[in-house]
């Protein structure tokens, strides 16, 4: 018996022209070599006591070994939870307890958790295990395979259980919508301990691409273009924060070739970033919109930035996208409303969270509780979260429209808008900005710039910060920002 991932990787290993599975400055790892290491790890996991009913936590810091352990669990068909060692111990323990993790795999005993059996995996352990094919303990493709958390931007993170069938569908969808070549070389300069980093690598391996190792220790992002050229990278997965850092870096090394495609995720893309990225860094930059529950919903590839404000591209193959009003009926092009999504291999609910499931999954549709519109030309415009919409004296205002205008000012690197409550006016819009250079512009100048373009929708107060607070994915932590600024934010 084998699993979907076991069958896919063994097929790649047996192909005479298979590309390298992992390309590294220390030497490439072929698919045949990767499968051998994964099978050794699977045998080791069984020897350590894993059974078909064992949920396994993974807290392995080494990038390659973290991937090997996750693939071994996929070979066996055991559910896994990625418990990043960068998270506080209490948070890891709470999630492990919630998911009934029965065994924790670490590469450092210091990362063990109280009350949970821990096994220490290393490359040395790999070498001592026999290279044998281990039968799957749980071959059901619809069983829980990976526990993933949502971004948590709306409060407590929600947990989803992704099956191997869902992961395989997303891998094939990604390869299709991003036009992967058979020898695609994918670089994700993010930790394998995080969902965004490891999931992209798993997708690449399922479809037989090469995953490029980003050197350990998280080197400066300014090295990425030179490293990408040396490693012959064709696809980059970046956060908006990383793309902005590259554009603003004074010591960026090298330049990406025009054929390199860079894709963003996890945050709104500032106006003008694709053009600035191409001019400063090289390659082409494409924004995307997606959710952990669905996968890629829309992408700018291959059309690029067509000048539509707040564009996230066109809906992706295999995903139904509708914009609906408060009555649940579809709205015509150009009308803003709530977005709802449906796909063949979508998640159908949250793990052990019936209230969140009832709120977001209705009649076969997933409601991310985002507001958007579809233009007459079929472009999806993302306007922001439904809960973030402000109502000032009966006027609907979306934070994205304020942020976009402020970021059009040449001195502004990034902006975040949010409301403060008013007993008279409802929601009063305010904003915080991060400048490209200190003292490049003052608050009255920014306020005048915004009022000229937004009129009554302009923020009533603007605050300049050295840096906007962000979470690990690069998204502005607006709740933290509101707590920080609201007590001293008054209407102007």
Poorly predicted runs: none
Question: How would a crystallographer describe the biggest sheet?
Answer: 7 strands, mixed
Q: What is the averaged pLDDT score?
A: 90
Structural class: alpha/beta
**Overall number of strands:** 27
Terminal CA distance: 68 Å
**Envelope shape:** globular
Strand content: 25-35%
Percent in helix: 25-40%
> How do the strands line up in the largest sheet?
2-1-10-9-11-12-13
Number of helices: 14
CA radius of gyration is: 23 Å
Describe the structure.
- This protein is an alpha/beta fold.
- The protein contains 14 helices and 27 strands.
- The strands form seven sheets. Strands 2-1-10-9-11-12-13 form a seven-stranded mixed beta sheet. It has a six-stranded mixed beta sheet with strand order 6-5-3-4-7-8, sandwiched between helices. A four-stranded antiparallel beta sheet has the order 17-18-21-22.
- β14 and β15 form a beta hairpin.
- α6 (164-177) crosses α7 and α12 packs across α13.
- It is globular.
- The N and C termini lie far apart (68 Å).
- The model has no long low-confidence stretch (mean pLDDT 90).
